[in-house]
């Protein structure tokens, strides 16, 4: 944290008290590491994803966790013999580790998908691609999630 | 009535890779939140989005509460023949919203 | 009071003083990925409400079963530039009306239809659709003649210290533009994006909902949607944004 932000705590609370109202709503707990491992094992079995072939594009600094644009690209010829079957996104610090799954066929022509995701807090988002030959590839990215100043409860 | 938007070309040449972008109005209520008097807000999620092209599924997406409200998706498909695209979003209760588009392939 | 202000000031790093010339759209304060999302109509979720509004435009409503399009035809031509001139004085009643109120006035007076609830999906959609027809056009509201007292009332509201924090709109949106407030940078307070899709709301919302968030932020009374005070303020903000381009549907955090 910036040195200029080291101020009297009560003053800071007073100044931002109303503004943080919305964050007083209790947040659900993050998924446990066990839940995360279980979710990943369910799709991968005993296979261990290797780094490479998949690229996760996501901002390193999300200024609002309600909607964070994501692009996943996999290096694949997308032929009958060699294509991406499924792309998975995992969020270890969200209440549920599964975020989204994209199921592709060779008819996609290209393995590139986009969506927007929710991130409850700062975390390392993980993307895994499972290929037609059963191999699994992974990429991950640390995303810092900051809070907006002017939240309102409606 | 739900509103959805689909962006895709009307025409393509056979073999072209066509990019499709979709949006649909939906709160994607997680089921993890409470309202301002503390009652849990019931889960309400689109869990499945499928796209068929001339009767064959070309894209399928499983959505969980971690997908942002008013879900956005972008993906590609190869233009193979003139045919109808059917976009189907299905929520937790099995209610589906369907949109159709035609791609003319030359 | 002093400690609250001090805290507010200390929370902000960097120092750029705002002047009329340097006022910029809050769009420019968004991170690049969100700017790109606003610019792409196929990815900007606010366009969903524009599309809903387009559907409502030609949908009959009220006792006479008339639609907007029966009188106004194709909105892409008939509504072009309209939102850039609102709020405006209604010639018939002499009242200052914003776009939402104009739409509702049209429904009750000309369509024998019920007014749509403020901040309801239908009014948001219609307002977004009409405002979208002015996208790219410069804001140009009348602030003379009958509008003058409203503009002056809005200006007074803007410079008046309010709420338990005892700060004015101007102290943030003129004196501290571009400075940090928690995860945000303070905007110039231009009302050019509205109705806008706000990530905090996860949906479309009106300018008045945003103003209510401001009121809450300084712990002042949250006024009603469409209240005369907010409509006057809306006119002042629009006058202050003269020449800036309408961007509805904007994307905001």
| Alpha plus pi helix count of chain A | 2
Q: What is the structural class of chain A?
A: mainly beta
Q: Would you report the number of β strands of chain C?
A: 7
Order of helices and strands of chain C: HHHHHEEHHHHEEEEHHE
Distance between the termini of chain C: 28 Å
CATH architecture of chain A: Sandwich
Please give the structural blueprint.
The complex is a heterotrimer of chains A (154), B (106) and C (253).
Chain A: H1 9-16, H2 33-44, E1 50-51, E2 54-58, E3 61-62, E4 68-74, E5 84-90, E6 98-103, E7 112-117, E8 123-131, E9 136-145
Parallel strand pairs in A: 1-9, 3-9
Antiparallel strand pairs in A: 2-4, 4-7, 5-6, 5-8, 8-9
Chain B: E1 4-7, E2 11-12, E3 17-24, E4 46-53, E5 56-63, E6 72-78, E7 83-91, E8 96-105
Parallel strand pairs in B: 2-8
Antiparallel strand pairs in B: 1-3, 3-6, 4-5, 4-7, 7-8
Chain C: H1 2-10, H2 32-39, H3 46-57, H4 68-72, H5 75-78, E1 88-89, E2 96-97, H6 99-110, H7 121-132, H8 148-159, H9 169-173, E3 180-181, E4 184-185, E5 196-198, E6 203-205, H10 207-217, H11 228-240, E7 250-252
Parallel strand pairs in C: 5-7
Antiparallel strand pairs in C: 1-2, 3-4, 5-6
Give descriptors for this structure.
heterotrimer, A: 154 residues, mainly beta, Immunoglobulin-like, six-stranded mixed sheet, three-stranded antiparallel sheet, 2 helices, 9 strands, disordered N terminus, C: 253 residues, Cytochrome Bc1 Complex, Chain D, domain 2, 2 domains, three-stranded mixed sheet, 11 helices
């Amino acid at each position: 944290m910036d040195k200029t932000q080291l101020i009297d705590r009560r003053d800071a609370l007073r100044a931002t008290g109303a503004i943080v109202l919305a964050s007083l709503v209790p947040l659900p707990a993050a998924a446990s590491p066990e839940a995360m491992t279980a979710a990943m094992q369910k799709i991968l079995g005993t296979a261990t994803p290797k780094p490479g072939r998949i690229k996760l594009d996501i901002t390193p600094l999300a200024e609002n966790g309600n909607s964070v644009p994501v692009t996943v690209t996999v290096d694949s010829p997308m032929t009958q013999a060699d294509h991406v079957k499924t792309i998975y996104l995992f969020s270890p610090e969200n209440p549920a580790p599964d975020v989204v799954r994209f199921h592709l066929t060779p008819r996609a022509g290209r393995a590139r998908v986009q969506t927007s995701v929710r991130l409850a807090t700062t975390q390392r988002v993980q993307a895994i691609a499972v290929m037609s030959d059963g191999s699994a590839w992974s990429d991950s990215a640390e995303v810092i999630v900051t809070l907006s100043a002017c939240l309102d409860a409606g | 009535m739900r509103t959805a938007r689909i962006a895709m070309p009307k025409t393509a040449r056979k073999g072209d890779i066509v990019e499709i972008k979709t949006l649909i109005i939906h709160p994607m209520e997680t089921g993890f939140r409470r309202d301002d008097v503390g009652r849990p807000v019931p889960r309400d999620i689109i869990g499945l989005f499928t796209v068929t092209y001339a009767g064959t599924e070309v894209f399928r997406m499983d959505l969980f509460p971690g997908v942002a409200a008013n879900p956005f998706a972008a993906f590609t498909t190869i233009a193979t023949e003139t045919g109808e695209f059917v976009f189907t979003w299905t929520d937790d209760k099995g209610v589906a919203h369907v949109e159709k588009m035609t791609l003319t392939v030359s | 009071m002093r400690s609250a202000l001090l805290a507010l000031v200390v929370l902000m790093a960097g120092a750029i003083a705002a002047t009329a010339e340097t006022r910029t759209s809050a769009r420019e304060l968004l991170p690049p990925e969100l700017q790109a999302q606003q610019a792409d109509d196929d990815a900007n979720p606010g366009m969903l409400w524009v599309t809903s509004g387009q559907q409502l435009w030609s949908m009959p409503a009220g006792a006479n079963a008339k639609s907007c399009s029966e009188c106004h035809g194709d909105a892409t031509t008939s509504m072009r530039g309209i939102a850039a001139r609102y709020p405006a004085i209604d010639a018939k009643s002499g009242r200052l009306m914003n776009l939402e109120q104009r739409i509702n006035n049209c429904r009750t007076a000309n369509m024998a239809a019920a007014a749509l609830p403020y901040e309801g999906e239908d009014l948001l959609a219609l307002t977004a659709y009409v405002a979208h027809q002015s996208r790219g056009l410069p804001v140009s509201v009348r602030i003379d003649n009958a509008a003058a007292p409203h503009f002056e009332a809005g200006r007074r509201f803007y410079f008046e210290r309010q709420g338990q924090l005892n700060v004015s709109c101007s102290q943030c949106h003129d004196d501290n533009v571009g400075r940090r407030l928690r995860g945000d940078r303070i905007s110039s307070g231009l009302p050019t994006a509205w109705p806008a899709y706000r990530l905090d709301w996860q949906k479309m919302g009106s300018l008045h909902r945003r103003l209510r968030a401001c009121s809450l932020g300084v712990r002042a009374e949250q006024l009603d949607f469409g209240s005369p005070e907010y409509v006057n303020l809306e006119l002042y903000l629009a006058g202050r944004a003269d020449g800036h381009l309408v961007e509805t549907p904007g994307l905001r955090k």
